[in-house]
Amino acid sequence: MKKEPKMNTENRHTVLVVVAHTDDEALGLGGTIAKHVENGDIVYGVSMTDGVGAKGGENDEEIKIRAQASINAGKILGLTWIEGGSFPDNAMDTVPLLAVAKVIEKAKSLIKPTIVYTHSSADLNVDHRVVSQATLTAFRPQPNEVWEEIRTFEIASATDYGHKSITNIFYPNLYVDIKHTWDKKLAALNEYKMEMRDEPHTRSFEGLENLAKHRGNQVGLYYAEAFEIIRKIER
Predict the structure, then answer these.
(1) What is the rounded distance in angstroms from the CA atom of residue 233 to the CA atom of residue 32?
(2) Which of 27, 126, 138, 184 has its CA 20 to 30 A from that of 96?
């Protein structure tokens, strides 16, 4: 599943997508990943859990299915998975933040990304919040860094389930046109069909299309994915 990264020698971006669970990459920014690849950027993904739950017993087969789905989705989008974490699913708040940050720092040192995507901290899912904080910790501004921008994304049935009085609020300030990569996002999501829900659930195929149209309509596009730029540095 994991591959050794290749160095980006052209004047393009190296992108790192840090997610709590495989499927978050397709849900949150599948169209944007595919667009990066079409533009000549190199995109890597790192996941912090197996996305299933406690390992062992009846979950073994589900873990294998989820791993294969992530490989298939990665091929569709053009994302290469590299070594990530093996933290407990839906219980990452039981893990020291430093341990999570170190896994992300390892990926950072390996590929030296210029653009970083991770979860919004304005999210009901505890794993998403931990990964968001750990990513900001791993990419705290220091001398001799090469990264230029950190962007956070929303996850249907997680970010939208939060509330400003508890989890703060996702306030996008970047919209990416995914009209021409929507089909790839949809195909990647189909690999994770075991995680999809029936409409009118927000994480249904119809719900995600509604979200893409809504984000697009906000800025005069047909389909869009929305992001919040947390930090941008012009070097």
Answers:
(1) 21
(2) 27
Distance from C-alpha of 201 to C-alpha of 30, rounded to nearest angstrom: 19
Q: Give the HSE-up count for residue 208: Cα atoms under 13 Å, Cβ half-sphere.
A: 30
Residue 52's Cβ-side half-sphere holds a number of Cα atoms within 13 Å equal to 19
Q: Do the beta carbons of residue 20 and residue 127 sit within 8 Å?
A: yes
Answer yes or no: are the C-beta atoms of 116 and 151 closer than 8 Å.
yes
Picking from 86, 93, 92, 99, the residue whose alpha carbon sits closest to that of residue 47 is 86
Kindly list the distances between the CA atom of residue 104 and the CA atoms of 31, 133, 148, 221, in Å, as whole numbers in the listed order.
Answer: 23, 11, 16, 33
Long-range Cβ contacts of 208-215 (<8 Å, 24+ apart) = 208/27, 208/156, 211/156, 212/31, 212/178, 212/182, 212/185, 215/172, 215/175
pTM for the predicted model, two decimal places? 0.93
124-171: pLDDT as tens digits? 999 999 999 999 999 999 999 999 999 999 999 999 999 989 899 999
Neighbours of 217 (CB within 10 A): 12
Residue 14 host element (H or E): strand 14-19
| Measured torsion, CA atoms of residues 199, 122, 23, 27, in degrees rounded to the nearest 10 | 50
Q: Strand, helix or coil at 53? A: coil
